[in-house]
Amino acid sequence: MTKPPRQYIVDFPAASVRSRMMSEIRFLAQETEKVLFSPHAREQMAHRGLTDIEAINVLRMGEIKGDAWVEPEIGGRACKVVFRPRGSRVIGVVTVIIEAGDLLVKTVEWEDE
User: Percent of the chain beyond pLDDT 90?
Assistant: First the structure.
């Protein structure tokens, strides 16, 4: 008889990277002028009825979902940050930490779609 696979295993290096990255995102998102929105993000927000403030609040209060990646064309590290505001659905914000010290929001989406 084989043992079932172990659950809830934390990859410490990845968790450590996500923690530092989330701290940096929260720090940068405290200054609204450091959060830039791509045309695609603006279009998706309008389509979904989401505002700039809602997206920025996700960056300020959310958590990284999944692994981070590098955006070579933009020149920065990227990830998806998710948050569920009270009485709402879970919002996902794909953001890039730009080397210039800003955040670029690539897209905003409902996580249950």
Answer: 71
